[in-house]
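Journal club side-thread
Mid-discussion, someone asked how the predicted structure for our own chain would compare to the paper's figures. Pasting it here so we can look after the session.
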Amino acid sequence: MAMSTQPGITAARPLPLAPAAAAEHAGLAAELARVRAERDALARTVSRLSTLDRMAVFQAGLVHEVGHQVGSMAAAVELLRREANGQVPAAIARRIEDVQAQVDGCRDVTRAMRLVMAGREQPPVPVPLAQPLSTVWRLVQAEAARRGVRAELAQELPGPAVCVLADRVLLERVLLNLCANAFEAMQPAGGGLLQLGWRVDAVPQGPGRVLVTVTDSGPGLGPRQPPAAGLGSEKADGMGVGLHWARLVVEPWGGSLALQDRPAAQGCGAVARLVLPLRAAAGLPH
């Protein structure tokens, strides 16, 4: 029915919907809202997958180029060793061997990363947690001194009975990645504290797990939404690529990785929580 617009004539009001029609209308509105929410979620997923695909291409190219550079460094170290021929002070000779060890470590990492990206990871093996932790702690102490940052262990290094299922080389790189992120988060303000910790968590009906934490006193994640990589970053321009790579490494071992703000009562900063499966062993601390 057309509504009149002539002066003095009241426009006709729409007829109310019958109860059944009103219920159907409300149901259609709710269904439309659900479909729109699913569409938006799907769009975010597609965007995230597209970003991860670009990251994978970038990382593959980076590993390839790093492999070439590592080969060049290995050749340079070998040439330096030959030219030294035992004629340099012992301290310098030790530094040459340190460089060689780092070059060998980089070579192992690039080899392992190629396997990860190709989906041909080596199966995890029992690794005494003290081995990667002691290596990382030694490097963290040196880097903390260079940056003017305090570094501390939350507790003593674990004994040989505490073994996790992992790849030792890759686990060291994951831990170094977490520590490097923590250092960079604290860099703008200067100073700060990096704390490396671990503990064994008992799990009913299972061998348990080990939680390794890297805590910093940086700005924390704050209200910013985590980037497409899904792990977040404390850096204003951070994309979480390194953390995403770390998660890709540890998940096939049965592990997990998360970056969270520290509890408010503990002050500003963030904590990276790395969970690793514990190999069953007797006499473990809880």
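Post-session note: Residues 44-117 form one domain.
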